[in-house]
Amino acid sequence: MKPTCSSLKNQRARRVALALSAGFALLAQLPGALAQTAYPTKPLTIVVPGPAGGITDQLGRLIALKVGERLGQSVIVENRAGAGGNLAAEAVARAEPNGYTLLLGTQGTQATNQYLYKSLPFDPAKDFVPVHALMSIPNIVVANASRPYRNITELVAFAKQNPGKVLFSSAGNGTGTHLAGELLQAEAGVKFVHIPYKGSAPSINDLLGGQVDISVDYPITTLGHIQAGKLRALAVTGPTRLPALPQVQTIGEAGYPGAESTSWIGLFFPAKTPAAIVERWQTEVAQALQDPAVVESLGRMGGLPLALGGAKFGDFVVAERSKWKTAIQRSGAKVD
After folding, report:
1. CA 212 to chain centre
2. What is the predicted pLDDT for the residue at 55?
3. Side-chain-facing half-sphere of 185: CA atoms under 13 Å
4. Helix axis angle, 275-288 relative to 5-38, nearest 10°?
5. Residues pairing with 58 in the sheet
6. Which CATH architecture has domain 44-137+262-331?
7. Beta strands 75-79 and 231-236, pairing class
8. Residue 305 pairs with which residues in a beta bridge?
9. What is the per-residue pLDDT across 64-73, written as a single tens digit (0 to 9) for each?
10. What are phi and psi of 132, to 5 degrees?
11. In whole angstroms, what is the distance from residue 306 CA to residue 130 CA?
12. Are the folds of 44-137+262-331 and 140-259 the same?
């Protein structure tokens, strides 16, 4: 029996409807697919919360170069120093969340500043998306070489026997070096006399000159003096010993695991940045951190790659906020 004219029309209508449905489904997928393959189509910017030549600047330029090569697009470093990194963080928090502006965030901008300053023009928890950690930097507890203590145990014993006699210098109120010293005091049950300076250089200069007794600072500022015999390393605040100082205990090994701390740096996008772009950066940064040249460069800065991306990095930042909130409140540290 031959199909009727009516049934043929119905069949053609069904075929047309199916074709249109498939076409619409394909079109619906195109924007996401195109965005994924086309990104990035213009230069990107990493906003760095420090001046040219500093550790954050060096790290920012290294990552900009390596990830830029992988993305096939130039990545520009923009230095916005000042206010403990808050100027840089505010700029990125207010940036369009289109995947073209990132913050080189620090322990300060993302974890401690909110407890040190009366108010911030951004919310570290709500205004950013964690992308990937980059580097962790332990501090070294150092003493003037003429002082009688040769390790943390002897320093603590001396401080208990001589209250108010140990002068402790730092790079400034609320800095990582100051807070690392506060953790040690709380864990060991001692009290040093804190003398804040405007940066590591003047702090270490006065330590070398004997105006202060101890300090806590980064390997990049202390190692040369330790190796020259002018400063004595008492302990490393990180979880592992430093290859350059294999004989120096970690603070945990010395009996004060609660005083363990590192300064850290990572990348953050503004909140509401598309997930596909965030994931792309997570992948590219993770690969860049495995580059032997990058690992070597981080070592010269006194740090180690911090292999935490996405949710794991986010959890790490939350834990850091909790830890430093307690330490800051206990110390009473404030920044005007």
Report:
1. 29
2. 86
3. 24
4. 40
5. none
6. 3-Layer(aba) Sandwich (3.40)
7. unpaired
8. 135
9. 999 999 999 9
10. -160, 140
11. 13
12. yes
| Per-domain boundaries in the chain | 44-137+262-331, 140-259
Residues 264-287: tens digit of each pLDDT:
999 999 999 999 999 999 999 999
Q: Can you tell me the distance from the alpha carbon of 170 to that of 153, in angstroms, rounded to the nearest whole number?
A: 21
- How far apart are alpha carbons 172 and 113 in whole angstroms? 13
Sign of CA dihedral 38, 132, 330, 233: negative
pTM score: 0.80
Q: Span 140-259: which CATH code? A: 3.40.190.10
pLDDT tens digits along 301-314: 888 899 999 999 99
Which of 331, 185, 161, 200 minimizes the C-alpha distance to 258? 185
Give the C-alpha distances (Å, rounded to integers) separating 248 from 19, 147, 150, 235, 243. 72, 17, 10, 6, 10
Location of structure tokens 């900009």: 64
Q: Go through the chain and tell me how many residues it has.
A: 336
Q: Report in angstroms the alpha-carbon separations of 307 from 19, 129, 133, 185, 285.
A: 47, 17, 6, 30, 9
